[in-house]
Amino acid sequence: MRKVYILLVFLFLNNFNYCFSQEPPVGFIPHLTKAGDTLSKIVPKSQWKIIMQINKIDEEHLPLNKIIFIPVNMERARKFTPLPTNVCSKRSERLIYISLANQFFGAYEKGRLVFWGPISSGKSKYKTPKGEFKVLWKSRKYRSKRYSQPMPYAINISAAGYFLHQQSLPGKPASRGCIRLLNSDAEKLFKWSKINDPVLIE
Question: What predicted TM-score, i.e. pTM, was given to this entire model?
Fold first, then answer.
């Protein structure tokens, strides 16, 4: 499995650099938000998910007076991915990959990226640890014992109390160490993942 990890990271670093430079990804254009803007005022509801994904925000955290990316060609925008679409491996293991630097996750099955999404990892005082982990247990309606906060679709990856779960995404690292996900992504990853699936955080 370590060979898969090494190759994945190599491909990731060599394919990501273009994605969030000054130029918007293919299929997107820059848009300057202003006071009073909401997703519903900017684009039709059918485009909300892709805007939240690419800008790493949820519906409640649209940044104001800032540049965001919005789709101009939906066909091309839907094909965009910030992660490698394939990794060369004959193994059948699934893999959850977390990029702390770029704030995205990818779900790989048999070496193929099956879905991806934005994350919000630990803020400066609560940095999310890097390393190799695995899915230990899951709880659809878990509540944090440490912070007494709801953690829907919780996927535990460490006995130290680190999880992947649904929570707000403000477009930057903001958690106390866990990996926050959009609600739809958290539900999908919860259903897709299995106990002992490897998780790589870098």
Answer: 0.87
- In this structure, the number of other CB atoms found within 10 A of the CB of residue 17 comes to 9
Tell me how far apart the alpha carbons of residues 56 and 172 are, in angstroms, rounded to a whole number.
Answer: 8
161 and 68 in a common domain? no
Q: Of 98, 191, 179, 194, which is closest to residue 140 (Cα–Cα)?
A: 191
Residue among 19, 61, 88, 165 flagged as catalytic:
165
Instruction: Return the exposure string of 62-73: e unless at least 16 CB atoms fall within 10 Å of the residue's CB, then b.
Output: beeeeebbbbee
Q: Is residue 12 part of a domain?
A: no
Average pLDDT over residues 139-147: 90
Can 31 be counted among the known catalytic residues?
A: no
**19, 31, 88, 178: the active-site residue:** 178
Whether 178 sits among the annotated catalytic residues: the reply is yes
